[in-house]
């Protein structure tokens, strides 16, 4: 879909190769990259470069595939270099971080993993200051495993492209209330290489309660698989329809 600001309406200008969601779309100098995501049945590693010639039609050009299937991850660009990270990689929550120079590289480069727990549905944004590029990682959640309970990421991490190192740059805590807030599922954009604006995201307390509830159901050894399925379905219906 394309929004025509002159006519104040959305227009259909093309179709995806597959019906998919939870991928990443980032701008580059000669178009846009559509990266990964998932269909109703599988996660994807496909990448496309999208351009719009003067005809107004959308052109999709296959681009170097991801090193693994990825969905519910984050991405951003600085010039013609795209960065992606987090989300589910080959079906499992990941700490991985990759980049590709869309003008010079023939494949994705693995960068140092970000520290801490894996982050699903995080946010990435990059700024350039004094000829150095910093990629900021916000939000994301971890659904829990055999060693760790579900958690919401509230620390802000920063990757220095020059030193190839991660560091903690801040925390997501409301200054007035002292309560943590979430940027899981949010979106972000840099402004003048000075600020990063973040929009939306889930409610920290409500979402953590939801993830923890389903984690507890899944790890309850006293109930059958059928009962777990019933409880999860019942909870999901209530959660998705609550005000």
Task: Provide structural commentary.
The protein has helices spanning 204-218, 225-241; strands spanning 2-4, 9-11, 24-28, 31-35, 47-51, 59-63, 70-71, 74-78, 81-85, 88-89, 92-93, 97-101, 109-111, 120-129, 132-142, 151-152, 155-160, 165-171, 187-191, 195-199. The strands form six sheets. Strands 14, 15, 16, 17 and 18 form a five-stranded antiparallel beta sheet that branches. A four-stranded antiparallel beta sheet has the order 3-4-5-6, with no helix packed on it. A four-stranded antiparallel beta sheet has the order 8-9-12-13, with no helix packed on it. It is globular. The model has no long low-confidence stretch (mean pLDDT 94). The protein is built from two helices and 20 strands. It has a domain at 72-202: Neuraminidase, CATH 2.120.10.80. It has 243 residues and is mostly beta strands. α1 (204-218) runs antiparallel to α2. 13% of the residues lie in helices and 40% in strands.
């Amino acid at each position: 879909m394309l929004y025509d600001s002159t006519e104040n309406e959305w227009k259909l200008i093309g179709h995806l190769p597959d019906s998919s969601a939870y991928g990443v779309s980032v701008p580059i100098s000669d178009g846009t990259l559509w990266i990964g995501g998932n269909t109703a049945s599988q996660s994807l590693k496909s990448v496309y470069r999208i351009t719009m010639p003067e005809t107004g039609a959308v052109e999709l050009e296959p681009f170097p595939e991801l090193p693994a299937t990825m969905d519910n991850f984050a991405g951003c660009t600085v010039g013609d270099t795209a960065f992606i990270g987090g989300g589910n990689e080959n079906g499992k929550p990941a700490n991985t971080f990759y980049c590709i120079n869309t003008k010079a590289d023939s494949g994705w480069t693995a960068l140092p993993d970000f520290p801490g727990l894996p982050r699903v549905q995080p946010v990435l944004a990059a700024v350039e200051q004094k000829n150095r590029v910093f990629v900021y990682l916000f939000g994301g959640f971890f659904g829990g495993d055999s060693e760790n309970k579900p958690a919401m990421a509230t620390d802000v991490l920063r990757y220095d492209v020059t030193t190839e190192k991660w560091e903690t740059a801040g925390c997501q805590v409301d200054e007035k209330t002292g309560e943590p807030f979430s940027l899981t599922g949010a979106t972000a954009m840099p402004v003048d290489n000075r600020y990063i604006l973040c929009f939306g995201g889930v409610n920290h307390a409500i979402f953590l309660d939801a993830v923890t509830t389903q984690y507890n159901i899944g790890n309850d050894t006293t109930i059958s698989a059928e009962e777990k399925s019933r409880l999860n379905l019942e909870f999901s219906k209530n959660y998705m329809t609550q005000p």
